[in-house]
Each structure stands twice: as structure tokens, then as C-alpha cells.
């Protein structure tokens, strides 16, 4: 089948395109390349365009006649969303509305949406189930929740079937080394730690070491990007074959690792000492964020293939060493 993949030149989108192709599907990447990379589009055509540009969307949909959509295109920097919420509502919400209207008008009935655990806000229980109240504490999380609400309304009014996948912390790189993480600016912990290991930055800053956790640092649920990608393939195939599904699923490993765990594992993988500085807590950082992904495991048969933190960091390190800035 043919699937339009918005944001398919980005980190998770490109890994999902590879997984789609491996399952016999054709991904059509639609990306404005603000954060995406043309080199990451290797398993189907790249069409440059913005989801807010309805005329361009219509052109690409008419050309390829996709049978479903996987929607990644979004801005995803939490801090930036607080400083410039208009940018996030315009792109993440307004752009998604443009896409959904195009789907409605062209009769495309299926969409898998890249959502986030940030829609839950401060957790009331750990691990977090899908039934947890959604109370985002920043405009990024709010924008994703608003799209989830739009999807519910479009399902009732227009019959567009959807699954929202709420990620925890995406990490790692393609085990074959063909694609990987390349954000600018980079805000994810593992690549920042590996930058410190390779001398690309002088140290890694731990934002608070006095949390109510075993070692005082924040605990997060890291999920390998290839496992995320496989979940999208399972989700879109479930929709197109009319399997009974929930409207939203968590994607996580169900176990948490602290910032110090990540640094210690990275030192073991890289065989390098990683300089550390302790900084002040960041506002809004919960001590623990761990997801309950049992529902997608039960309903769609999804199971993480790279659940071990060492595996995740090993794939990220192999990718990191291939980059032109690496000193290795």
C-alpha cells in the first residue's frame, strides 16, 4: 500500500519509512525540510511541501493516491513552545487541520498520528496508562492533545479512522547504520551524552540531582526508534485491515532509566569518561516518566526488540561515530 508520511525526512519518520518499505509498502515522504534531511529519505519518493499548504498537499495526494497517512510533521521543542506558542499552534494544530481536511476531501480514511506522553502532564501514577488524565503543562503537549481531539471529531463526523501513538523518549539509531538522530539544536539526552564522550561538547549537564529517585536524577522511559517505527507499521496495517483498536496507545519500554544510568551506560559502551556538571532543576521536569505499553502489545502484538539501554546506546554510538563531526 501507499502511505503519505508527513515529516518523513525527520528522525522517527525516516525510520518508519524504512520499516514500511521492509513490510512491502511504499512511503511517500512529504516534508518541508525545516528539520528533516533529504539524505534520510531512502525508501520512497521525497516531495517537498508544508502541511499548511493545501494546494501542495492536493498536488501530492493526486499524484500518488495514498491509501493512508502517517503524520509526524510537527515542531517538538518544549522550551521553544513556551517561548513561542503561536508557532506551535499554527504548525502543529493548524497544519494538522489542513492535512485532515485534505484527507476528508480526497477520501483518505486512515491516519496514524505521532502524539506524545507530554499530553499527560505531571503523572499521577507510574507507569502511566492510556486512561491517565491528559493535562499538558506546555504548549507542545497541548498542541498534540488538540490534534488528538480533532481526530476524535473527524472520526465521528467524517469516518476518518485514526490511532494516536503517545511516545515516551525516542532514542537510538537504525541498527544497520543507514539513518540516525541529527537534530539542530540537539536536546535529547543520549546524543548530548555521546557528544560529551567524543569531545564535541565539554561536559553533560545534569539538571538536578536531588529528585526523589534512587540516585537523585530524573528517570525516563527510553524506547528505540526502530521499535517506534515498527509500531507505526502495525498501527497503520491494523487500521487498513479493520482490526479492533483503541484510539490511542502508549509506546514505551515500561521501565525507566535515570540520567546517571544513561551516563554510566554510555561510558561503558564508549569506553570513555564523560565529564558531568550538576545544574539547577528545570521547571516542569517530573521525577519519573514511565509508560505502560501493555495495550499495544496485547492488541497489535507489538514488542520492543531493543529494550535494553545498552543496545539502544550502542546503536546511537555507531551512528554517532559515522558523522563527519566525530573525532573517532
From TrEMBL:
It comes from the Bacteria. It catalyses: UDP-alpha-D-glucose = UDP-alpha-D-galactose. The keyword Isomerase applies. Its EC number is 5.1.3.2. Keywords: Carbohydrate metabolism, Isomerase, NAD. Its cofactor is NAD(+). This is UDP-glucose 4-epimerase. Belongs to the NAD(P)-dependent epimerase/dehydratase family. Pfam families: Epimerase (PF01370).
